[in-house]
């Protein structure tokens, strides 16, 4: 057997794969690739194509060129608020939730008292679906029956946390951050546990302060975790959907792009062409992040 | 295969993969038994759900062929939002839906089964009911079951305690609201978190100011939303707003119904089942209503908003291709159109009234009797904004527009321009 393979590989030169290997490889790679094309690229391309039509899901498909896009940018009041809210989501999670999660991770990693308790408490929301977080948020923030107004005790003139379009997005961001912080914390905690203690010792011997040790020594070694946190934060803010949908179907101050897509496509409305145009905008924005990330990674690979 | 077909195939395939409908997931039951009728229900609220269960049990009991009904209940709002996909994928044979434009829209798309033959034998339905069950092609697609009026609801005991009189005109309505404010009540309940309850107020102000015909043509997209008459509607609404419960967009109709029950608000514009379901059974006799007050004497209180609910056959249902299943489904519709079927239902849900003139009125509550009178005395019956216009217009334009009006009521001109621009693109898409 061994002789056999050796002879064959010698004849084929550098190729060390038998025909069976090729078949297995082909199947193992081919099936995922086919699935990927069917489940990911097919619908994506279909969305792009449909965004140039005025299809309502039942009748014939009519081409309308870029009319949907023109319509979207100039004549659809919820669109720009939705874009703003998605960006706000990214900003809030990235600038508030992530640093806070890092801070908690560092504190817990230093071994404060009851750290296990904090760890599990803070991580708890992560096991909840965002839709459930939305329902919990309603119990807390509802104007007439919510806990928050009852605690503050302003039953005379209660604040409409979820109905006031100036306020509700912040309340929802708080609820979303409540969950995201735990997620970030657990990732950083894992990263911090992996930092070689000798690095810290060396820094201490060199006379670095705690802050210096953290920012100059520990934080740079967390680079892979930072990348992961960055990626999940971007994903989390672009796919923001369930929580606002659970609260008020993403209307009245809680517009986000994904809700507009479903409102137009899945809802009774069935403006599939128009909804696809919104989906394409969301795709382009996500591609922006994906490409930036890939370029950075590839560059990093080269410089390594 | 043409390019269009290929595209459509790709799109449908994509849709099937990317958007697996909630409803189809629920409706995959044992198929093939022609004695079992699958029925898609949107009655997810406790009271109607129980009443429908009673009605279907009564059907099964009287069925000599031993037909059974398998009900797939889906949350009311989800059912509505998924109806399009539901009717196109693999719907149940029979499903619940609404009369009027919302039904005609699907009839035009060829998603409903023509039941004109059944209508020839139906008895006890008025011509207005038949009109609301008829598609644009003159064929019937809908079996009406019950309806309920929208009006201004209040508690008898509260009105008696303070000696309030039901107002006839808008001025009296506002005077009453002022008095309620003095008496430390929030005068008018207000809720629009779900997006649709406030449409009822718009419809009434519109029909009282401009008449039913204007309502119809406005909803059909034939009138401009920048018309002075539409702006007047919003301006009148603004006169009432200071007396409304603040924070409408953060409150569901259930919460407003409870506020009425707890005597926190004086009155509220809703449909009959809405306060009805939020009152404990013992207090239901305390619910009363008056018709929305007159604004323009020319139109008086002629029109009543009374949405009709009923049953339809889904054309894409695979079972209906089977003759025996079709006969079962039609048998069910025939039974549902009888006064007896409505009596059974209404015994369990006294928040609606029967459409069949043969229904037993003797068991009606006072409120039901008053509702029946209100509808009988109406010169026109409207169906509700989201049932009288295109669903895509109602849900993607009017819901956000009215919510915006409720939170920032000052820019009526900008709002009307926004609506009109979007209306043009939506109504032009066909």
Strand order of the largest sheet of chain B: 2-1-3-10-4-11
Radius of gyration of chain B: 22 Å
Helix fraction bin of chain A: over 70%
Q: Strand content of the residues of chain B, in percent?
A: 5-15%
Give the amount of beta strand of chain A, in percent: under 5%
Helix/strand-derived category of chain A reads mainly alpha
Q: Quick one: how many beta strands of chain A?
A: 0
CA(first)-CA(last) distance of chain B: 25 Å
Oligomer: heterodimer
Structural class determined from secondary elements of chain B: alpha/beta
Polypeptide structure, described:
The complex is a heterodimer of chains A (304) and B (430). Chain A is mainly alpha-helical and 304 residues long. Chain A has helices at 2-12, 19-50, 67-74, 79-109, 115-123, 130-141, 147-152, 168-193, 197-205, 210-221, 223-238, 242-248, 257-265, 272-303. The two termini of chain A are 41 Å apart. Mean pLDDT of chain A is 87; it is low at 5-10. In chain B, 50% of the residues are buried. The model of chain B is unreliable at 10-31 (pLDDT under 50). Chains A and B meet through helix 2 and helix 13 of A and helix 1, helix 4, helix 19 and helix 20 of B.
